[in-house]
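Practice problem: predict the structure.
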Amino acid sequence: MEIERKFIPSNIPAEVFDSPCVLLEQAYIQTSPVIRVRKKATIEKNLPANPNFILTVKSSGMMARQEFELPLLQKEYEELLQKASGNVITKRRYLHKLPDGYLLELDVFEGIFKGLIIAEIEFPDEETAKKYTPPTYLVEEVTFDHRFHNSNLSKMSVEEIHTLLGIL
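Answer:
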């Protein structure tokens, strides 16, 4: 079970960008239920390391949903990537440990989504997620705004992307 809240940050502390970082490329074969392929490469000494390839299936839901991940070979990833539709999403994910022990995943989008930054925090259960008070720089919660789910970003037109980026 994946239980997470999503936020739009502002005035992000510099130490977040000093945290470990991974490069992500992901595309969607379908969005209901979500079937996603992802290439994930850790950044080491400012260069991406050997990537991992993952197939993910997610159930419907906004804050809580089932999630299953399976490893892929690079060839399998590349073949499935050709079957994906919509926008391929690329981003840098900074993995920052918060003082309260939770992990902040800060996604800095690249390519057609450049300018979009979304922060996510995962929780062990829904009760904890609902009671959680986020750091003050996570200014706007977008957990229940479907526009900020990556599967929906993958379906946006250029005009919809510009509108979304224009309101941030």
